[in-house]
Amino acid sequence: MGGVRPDRPGDGDGPAVADMVAELAEAEAAEADARAQAVAARARADEAREDAADDGPADDLTTTAPEPGARRPRIAQTAGLALAALLTAAALILTAVMLWQHGKVAAQRAGDRRFVDAARDGITALLTIDHTRAQADVQRVMDLSTGQFHDDFARSANDFVKTAEDSKAVTSGSVNVAALEKVEGDQAVVLIAATSEVTNISGARRDPRPFRISVTVTRQGDECKMSDVEFVP
């Protein structure tokens, strides 16, 4: 019996215990690895949230603050509208001024024409006397005159009529040229080149006689009339 050793407790279970120890070690390693992966995942998630928070304000600034290039079209458009408005206003003002000037010139020309027409009509009447209607012809001259000339002609009107009737003459006057020399307020001087033809009782005609006459015309209200007549040599 001395040659046989009794078995030590546990010797028969050696392989099973070793396996269990190994599995336990593997489980602990796997658990440690899982914890490490979880920690890494949480770290990555935290890092991602921090990156998103950092990127947020920059995006907001980009959205709310327009770049200088985006402002230029609006500024250019506003400036263009303002310039167009100024040009339109200037055009309207220029048109109004031109119309006013045109109206002023037209009114002045119309006034000048009235002076010339009054002188033309007065001289034509003065140089046209028919003995058969001498009284009416003389009255027409008086109706077309005013001032000193009217008064002087009125004083000699009867003699003028008698001379025309006694001579049995007919004079016919015509104005060849009438030009405005000057205008001063309500008076103007008109230069006239006229011609008068005389026919006597026998029908004989005298050669036309030319006249150069300076006529002063005065405006009275809406009418213009001769106020002085001067025959120029």
Major beta sheet summary: 5 strands, antiparallel
How much helicity do the residues have?
55-70%
Let me know the average pLDDT: 77
CATH superfamily of the largest domain: VirB8 protein
CATH class group of the largest domain: Alpha Beta
At the fold tier of CATH, the topology name of the largest domain is: Nuclear Transport Factor 2, Chain: A
Features:
233 residues, alpha+beta, Nuclear Transport Factor 2, Chain: A, 2 domains, five-stranded antiparallel beta sheet, 5 helices, 5 strands, 60% helix, 22% strand
Describe the structure.
The protein is α+β, with helices and mostly antiparallel strands and 233 residues long. The chain has two domains: 22-54; 102-232, VirB8 protein (Nuclear Transport Factor 2, Chain: A, Roll), CATH 3.10.450. 60% of the residues lie in helices and 22% in strands. It is built from five helices and five strands. The chain has helices at residues 14-64, 68-126, 134-143, 147-155, 157-167; strands at residues 129-130, 170-184, 187-199, 209-220, 223-232. The protein has a five-stranded antiparallel beta sheet with strand order 1-2-3-4-5. β4 (209-220) and β5 form a beta hairpin. α2 (68-126) runs antiparallel to α3 (134-143) and α3 (134-143) packs antiparallel against α5. The longest helix has 59 residues, at 68-126. The radius of gyration is 62 Å and the shape is rod-shaped. The termini are far apart.
